[in-house]
Write a structure and sequence with these properties.
- The chain is of the alpha/beta class.
- Strands 5-2-1-6-7-8-11-12 form an 8-stranded mixed β-sheet, sandwiched between helices. A 4-stranded mixed β-sheet has the order 4-3-10-9, covered by helices on one side.
- Helix 3 packs parallel to helix 4.
- It is globular and about 60 Å long.
- Bound molecules: NADPH dihydro-nicotinamide-adenine-dinucleotide phosphate (NDP) and ketopantoate.
- The site of NADPH dihydro-nicotinamide-adenine-dinucleotide phosphate (NDP) has 26 residues, from helix 1 and helix 3.
């Protein structure tokens, strides 16, 4: 049994923490007080396939200052934008043998962790599915995908153990030996995040409208120019391969419904993490998502106009400068960001 700390237990952290507890690991959560209050009766996890597990209350603290233990594994589940601030607390508890698992979306936030702890094992993890909180302490996974932890060939058995500590009836998990490619592939899916925040409707309703899909498809094409130039082969994260995704998204609504029925097999209530950020007036992860594409593209001399325009819109939305444009329609968005031919 290992001693695990989940630092920044929100949607993903509570989901992972409950799976660790289910597997009889020692777990402590670092979370905000209002979250700790909601977990006092334990945690229930369900998924879109009607699986369910329930665990007893997990010890929760609001700061590591109160943690007496040293930890074998720290699962860092804050947003990318909170990683830097988290480091100050992590410095108090990371021991020489502690492994850190960075569970952020996007690219690059783990660099801060690696710089802060150059002698520790720092692994990245990829969360492919959506989690929402349906009631206090009840977290629901609304979409498909296998949680992946980065391999470390020098420590393969340890990573295999981590996988077995986290997988459960509501969480498939695996080891990934090419995390760079997997995170780019996940980033491709996260290009829906900004559009979901701008559209202000559930993901399923957004995907049913071609104009939104066309904008997402164009951002994906820009991403694919970058990954092709870098010779990165993107693994499949959904049932559709990376280069085929923009083609499918571009289809007329009636045909999309038939061809992409598995893509639409998501709960009606799913919204992306960026929608939650905007709704709760929190900073978004846009710089680590679309921003990372623009940054890499610049280095390669590739232009990414649609990603750039969408970034501007998200900044305007965050700064309340979009006024009547919250709930932007597909047509409005298309006209604003797509290149005029
Ligand atoms: N939600 C989802 O469905 C998915 C999310 N992801 C990714 O997973 C990562 C985590 O996302 P998610 O779980 O949604 O985020 P949440 O905002 O739900 O959870 C993060 C939690 O950490 C808390 N936190 C931040 N800093 C500290 C601190 N110093 N001490 C204690 N608590 C702290 C936050 O509180 P506060 O907000 O008050 O700062 C928040 O409650 C992100 O990178 C996201 O993109 C990936 C796939 C799906
Ligand atoms: C699972 C997905 C792609 C969409 O919910 C996500 O990663 C997010 O919301 O950030």
């Amino acid at each position: 049994m290992l001693n695990h700390l989940v630092f920044g237990a929100g949607l993903i952290g509570c989901y992972l923490g409950a799976n660790l507890q289910y597997n009889k690991q020692r777990v402590t959560l670092i979370c905000r007080e209002h979250i700790a209050d909601k977990l006092s009766k334990g945690i229930v996890l369900t998924d879109y396939l009607q699986h369910r597990i329930a665990v007893e209350p997990i010890p929760s603290l609001t700061s590591v200052v109160d943690a007496m233990d040293s930890f074998d594994v720290i699962w860092l589940t804050v947003k990318c934008t909170a990683v830097e601030t988290a480091l100050a607390q992590l410095r108090l508890i990371v021991g020489s043998k502690t492994t850190l698992v960075c569970c952020q979306n996007g690219l690059g936030s783990e660099q801060l962790v690696k710089q802060a702890f150059p002698d520790n094992q720092v692994l990245r993890a990829m969360v492919p599915f959506n989690v929402v909180e349906l009631a206090d302490g009840h977290f629901h996974r609304g979409s498909q995908g296998t949680f992946a932890i980065e391999d470390n060939p020098a420590n393969f058995n340890f990573v295999t153990d981590l996988v077995s500590h986290i997988e459960s009836p509501v969480l498939e998990a695996s080891i990934c030996n090419d995390m760079d490619s997997l995170l780019w592939a996940k980033l491709q899916l996260n290009l829906g995040n900004s559009i979901n925040a701008l559209a202000d409707i559930p993901v399923k309703a957004m995907l049913q409208q071609r104009k939104y899909r066309q904008v997402i498809a164009q951002m994906m094409r820009e991403l694919l120019l970058v990954t092709d130039a870098k010779s990165i082969e993107l693994p499949k994260v959904t049932s559709i391969s990376a280069h085929y995704l923009p083609v499918i998204l571009n289809l007329p609504d009636w045909l999309f419904k038939i061809v992409a029925n598995r893509m639409l097999a998501i709960d009606e209530n799913v919204r992306t993490s960026m929608w939650w950020d905007i709704s709760q007036a929190k900073p978004t992860e846009i710089d680590y998502l679309n921003g990372a594409i623009v940054e890499q593209a610049k280095l390669l001399g590739i232009s990414t106009p649609v990603n750039q325009k969408v970034i501007e819109l998200i900044y305007q939305l965050s700064n309340n400068k979009l006024q009547n444009k919250r709930k932007i329609t597909g047509k409005q968005l298309y006209n604003l960001v797509m290149p005029k031919i």
